[in-house]
TrEMBL record:
Alphabetical list of Pfam families matching this protein: TetR_N
PANTHER family linked to this entry: HTH-TYPE TRANSCRIPTIONAL REGULATOR BETI, HTH-TYPE TRANSCRIPTIONAL REGULATOR RUTR
InterPro entries, alphabetized: DNA-bd_HTH_TetR-type_CS, Homeodomain-like_sf, HTH-type_TetR-like_transc_reg, HTH_TetR, Tet_transcr_reg_TetR-rel_C_sf
Lineage: superkingdom: Bacteria
Residues annotated as domain HTH tetR-type: 12-72
Alphabetized UniProt keyword annotations: DNA-binding, Transcription, Transcription regulation
Name of this protein: AcrR family transcriptional regulator
Record carries keyword Transit peptide: no
Gene3D superfamilies: Tetracycline Repressor, domain 2
Signal peptide: none
Keyword Transcription in record: yes
Length: 200
């Protein structure tokens, strides 16, 4: 007998609950200290229920990092690399990115774990690296267009784009939630200076 829509919805919700609990534990306790037992307890489901949705802890960690990447990448890459006003586009892009990164602190902690042990998590790292390259390329094009229009100082776009992505991760991970939220508006003009606007 096929599952009803309600049963499918319930299963989807349970899977999301398990994944959220796993993400939180991986972020706060690390991969090694996180167990399926801890995840099941945090998600308030039975130990066996976890295996209905995920083969093992390794698959859970993979899913916790890779699954959100598609939606996040769409939102992060949602800027125009060839606008009429590159400086205004940079300001808008930075404001969007800083607010977006404000809500993904735990996810960024997982990303840092993967990057720090990229040989261990080679499959996950490859997917993150592919997105990172795409992000760097698009930001670099925006920088180049700003330079062509004489609105940005001449400098190598790729190192600037790389520093920008590092800045986004760094300011999120190095601040408490309260401090980060209080400083959001101040970060935008400071981050803009990285790109070398001539009239700011």
């Amino acid at each position: 007998m096929p599952l009803s829509e309600q049963q499918i919805l319930n299963m989807k919700k349970k899977r999301e609950t398990i994944l959220e609990a796993a993400t939180s534990l991986f972020a706060t306790e690390g991969y090694e200290a996180t167990t399926i037992k801890k995840i099941s307890e945090a998600a308030n489901v039975s130990f066996g229920s976890v295996f209905t949705y995920f083969k093992d802890k390794e698959e859970l960690f993979y899913t916790a990092v890779v699954e959100p990447l598609k939606e996040l990448s769409d939102r992060i890459l949602d800027f125009n690399p060839d606008p009429m006003d590159p400086v205004a586009e940079l300001e808008k892009m930075i404001a969007v990115h800083i607010k977006l990164f404000a809500g993904i602190n735990q996810y960024l902690t997982l990303v840092v774990q993967v990057v720090g042990q990229h040989q261990r998590y080679a499959d996950i790292f490859e997917k993150l690296d592919t997105f990172h390259d795409e992000f760097l390329e698009k930001v670099s094009i925006l920088i180049q267009n700003g330079q062509k229009k004489g609105l940005l100082i001449q400098q190598e776009p790729l190192p600037v784009a790389t520093l920008y992505t590092s800045l986004l991760i760094g300011i999120r991970l190095n601040n408490t939630d309260t401090l980060y939220s209080n400083m959001l508006d101040h970060y935008v003009p400071a981050a803009l200076q990285l790109f070398g606007p001539k009239n700011k």
